[in-house]
C-alpha cells in the first residue's frame, strides 16, 4: 500500500510537471489538493507522511468522523469541496481551513457569522447539468462582493467541475471560461482539473488541481 501511494504520488507530480513545462508555467504555481473523500483517516495519515498537507473532503459528516483522529497532523489543511448546507456552517467553519464550494451569498454570510477565519472559493456552475452544484455565472458578482465584505472570509479563488467525459479536451472550454471570470473579478486562484483532466486544466491556468482517484484508487460508491 505504501509503495503504491508513493508511486501514484510520483506519477501525479510528474503529470503536473509535464503539463507545466508544456504550458511554460512554474510547477510551484500549481498546488495539489489530495481528495480523500470516502477513504478512511488512515489514508489521510499515509498521504500526510508523504508530505501532502492540503486535503479535499466532500462531506461535513464524514469529516466529523475523521477530524478527531487526525487532529495531531500539524499543518494539515482541509478544504470542503462538496456542497455545504447552510445548517452545517458552524461545523464546517470549525473543521475546515478553506471552503471551496461557496455557491450563494447567504451561505458566505452564515459562514462569516461563525467568527472563524476561513479561506473561501466560489464554486461556479458552467454547465447545464442538473446534478452539479455551484453558482450560476450571473450570481457571481454578488457573491464576490459579499465575501469581500466579510470580516472572516478571504476570497482566494473560483472552483469548477466540468461535465464528466472520457475526453479531457471537452473540459477545456469550461476551464478557459473560469479563468476569464476570475480575471474579470481579479480573483487569483483557480481550482480546476481532477484525475482525468488535470493537464488541460493546468494549460488553462489552474492553480489547484483536485486529485482523488489517481492518488488513492477508485472509490467505492457511497
Ligand atoms: C471527488 C472530487 C474530486 C476528485 O476527483 P477524481 O476524479 O477522483 O480525481 C475533485 N473535485 C471534486 C469537487 C470532487 O467531488
Protein architecture, described:
- By secondary structure, the protein is an alpha/beta fold.
- The protein has one domain (2-215): TIM Barrel (Alpha-Beta Barrel).
- The chain contains nine helices and eight strands.
- Helix 5 (105-113) runs parallel beside helix 6 (140-149).
- The longest helix has 21 residues, at 2-22.
- The mean pLDDT is 96.
- Pyridoxal-5'-phosphate is lined by residues 35, 37, 58, 81-82, 161, 194-196, 210-214.
How would you briefly describe this protein structure?
The protein has one domain: Alpha-Beta Barrel (TIM Barrel).
* Helical amount: 40-55%
The amount of beta strand, in percent, is 15-25%
Overall strand count: 8
Q: Order of strands side by side in the largest beta sheet? A: 7-6-5-4-3-2-1-8
Number of domains: 1
Uncertain stretches: none
The CATH class designation is Alpha Beta
CATH hierarchy: architecture: Alpha-Beta Barrel
Question: What's the arrangement of secondary structure elements?
Answer:
Layout: H1 2-22, E1 31-35, H2 41-49, E2 54-57, H3 60-70, E3 77-80, H4 89-95, E4 98-102, H5 105-113, E5 118-123, H6 140-149, E6 153-159, H7 172-184, E7 189-191, H8 198-203, E8 208-211, H9 213-216
Parallel strand pairs: 1-2, 1-8, 2-3, 3-4, 4-5, 5-6, 6-7
Bound molecules: pyridoxal-5'-phosphate.
Pyridoxal-5'-phosphate is lined by residues 35, 37, 58, 81-82, 161, 194-196, 210-214.
Amino acid at each position: 500500500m505504501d509503495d503504491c501511494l508513493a508511486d501514484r504520488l510520483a506519477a501525479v507530480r510528474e503529470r503536473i510537471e509535464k503539463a507545466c513545462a508544456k504550458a511554460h508555467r512554474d510547477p510551484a504555481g500549481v498546488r495539489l489538493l489530495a481528495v480523500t473523500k470516502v477513504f478512511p483517516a488512515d489514508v489521510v495519515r499515509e498521504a500526510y507522511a508523504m508530505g501532502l498537507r492540503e486535503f479535499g473532503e466532500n462531506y461535513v459528516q464524514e469529516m466529523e468522523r475523521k477530524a478527531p483522529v487526525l487532529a495531531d497532523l500539524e499543518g494539515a489543511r482541509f478544504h470542503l469541496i462538496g456542497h455545504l448546507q447552510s445548517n452545517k456552517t458552524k461545523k464546517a467553519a470549525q473543521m475546515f481551513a478553506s471552503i471551496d464550494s461557496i455557491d450563494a451569498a447567504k451561505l458566505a454570510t452564515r459562514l462569516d457569522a461563525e467568527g472563524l477565519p476561513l479561506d473561501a472559493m466560489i464554486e461556479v456552475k458552467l454547465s447545464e447539468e442538473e446534478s452539479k452544484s455551484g453558482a450560476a455565472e450571473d450570481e457571481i458578482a454578488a457573491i464576490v462582493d459579499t465575501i469581500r465584505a466579510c470580516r472572516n472570509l478571504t476570497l482566494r479563488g473560483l472552483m469548477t467541475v466540468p461535465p464528466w467525459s472520457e475526453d479531457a479536451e471537452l473540459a477545456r472550454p469550461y476551464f478557459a471560461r473560469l479563468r476569464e471570470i476570475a480575471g474579470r473579478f481579479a480573483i487569483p486562484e483557480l481550482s480546476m482539473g481532477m484525475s482525468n483532466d488535470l493537464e488541460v486544466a493546468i494549460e488553462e491556468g489552474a492553480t489547484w488541481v483536485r486529485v482523488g482517484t489517481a492518488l488513492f484508487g477508485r472509490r467505492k460508491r457511497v
